[in-house]
Amino acid sequence: MSTPVRPDFLPFSRPTVESGEINEVVDSMNSGWITTGPKVARFEGLFREYLGVSEAIAVSSATAGWHLVVKALGIGPGDEVIVPAITWPSMANIVELSGARAVFAEVHPDTLQIDAEDLRRRLTERTRAVIPVHFAGAACDIDAIEAAIGDRPIKLVEDAAHALGTDYRGRRVGSEGRITLFSFHATKNVTTGEGGMIACNDAALAARLRLLRFHGITRDTWARSSGKGGTADFELLEPGYKYNMLDLQAAMGLHQLPKLERFNARRAELAARYDRLLAHLPCVRPLATVPYASQHAHHLYVVRLDTQALGLSRDEFVTALAQHNIGTGLHFPAIHLKQYYRERYGYTAADCPNAVLLGNSILSLPLYPNLLDTDIDDVVNAISKVVLRTTSSHP
Ligand SMILES: Cc1ncc(COP(=O)(O)O)c(C=O)c1O
Q1: Distance of alpha carbon 95 from the chain centroid
Q2: Domains of the chain and CATH, by start
Q3: Residue pLDDT tens, the chain, 395 long
């Protein structure tokens, strides 16, 4: 084993937390109000303004938001929802938890975006919704997906967990009023530690989502205890969940969201540096650019390995990079072949072969605004050492 390219470990992701966020969280802690309250309301307002939509519902995670949406759409036993085979598993899991069935659609091998033609083939009389991902921060082909759905009564819900700042054919993702889910998990382009936002333009749906977000009762804790009139009593309209965002989280979001443009510009610079440096290396290729206009949010920098030419599996490659003190991520393995889905529905690799091939050969390189150019150089240096070592010893 050669000397590591750097002495300290470079994580795959690290949140960019600055003094504004820290002071705002401390302000909440000192204020006597740390759960859902005025800062959540302000953060929702900022988000509505940013997207130009009428409704933004802050929740404890994008997964929780999806659960609320599935419930509000009345999806349940006997229904089907189409999810890409390469996505975060919670998107499929929530469908299963509702009693409906998650049906997996194939992805394009060069971009990992959902394949609209394959999605069309998987539509049935039972399909109630589809939830494509804007993968890695590039946009999926929403127009093609809408065309595939046609005039069937099927909801298109956008998974924009990676896509804060993405645009699709000049339209900001989430700005058009379709139900769109954002995540503020610690690795995301804007973070609140954990957290999510549901955006839409439907006031009635939003009211239902707000109700379901907090137990199904008509007034949350802030409304009942802020001394702004009224009593502590409430009505309970239907059993709901406990998926509210905290003021402590919104305090971070209030300072993160205004920095999105700066953060994403730095992500773009770093991604361009990877592009330039990796262009000289064999066996490691970034995902292709989508074949339509899309501003990339550069949430992830995903590369695909030619594992055959390398004579190494993806996991062996990841281990070799870790020995050089370079951390990596995996977004994502093919979900339809994970044990629960494989055993419950009998899925095989042949059901979504691109997803299986890609799920076994991709990895995500470190990418976050406070990375240094020299960190990118270290990553590429480590990759080139592993590639050259293996290709020179492999016939
Ligand atoms: C594509 C995608 N969808 C949904 C989620 C769920 O987001 P959260 O962790 O906020 O529930 C993630 C999380 O990483 C994701 O990557």
Answers
A1: 17
A2: 19-259 (3.40.640.10), 260-393 (3.90.1150.10)
A3: 679 999 999 999 999 999 999 999 999 999 999 999 999 999 999 999 999 999 999 999 999 999 999 999 999 999 999 999 999 999 999 999 999 999 999 999 999 999 999 999 999 999 999 999 999 999 999 999 999 999 999 999 999 999 999 999 999 999 999 999 999 999 999 999 999 999 999 999 999 999 999 999 987 777 777 666 667 888 999 999 999 999 999 999 999 999 999 999 999 999 999 999 999 999 999 999 999 999 999 999 999 999 999 999 999 999 999 999 999 999 999 999 999 999 999 999 999 999 999 999 999 999 999 999 999 999 999 999 999 988 776 55
Whether 83 contacts 351, CB under 8 Å:
no
Contact assessment for residue 47 and residue 258, using Cβ atoms and an 8 Å cutoff: no
Which one is catalytic: 39, 71, 155, 188?
188
Please tell me if the CB atom of residue 60 comes closer than 6 angstroms to any atom of ligand 1.
no
129 alpha carbon – ligand 1 mean position (Å): 18
Residue 188 designated active-site? yes
C-alpha 136 to ligand 1 mean position (Å)? 11
3-state DSSP assignment of residue 40: helix
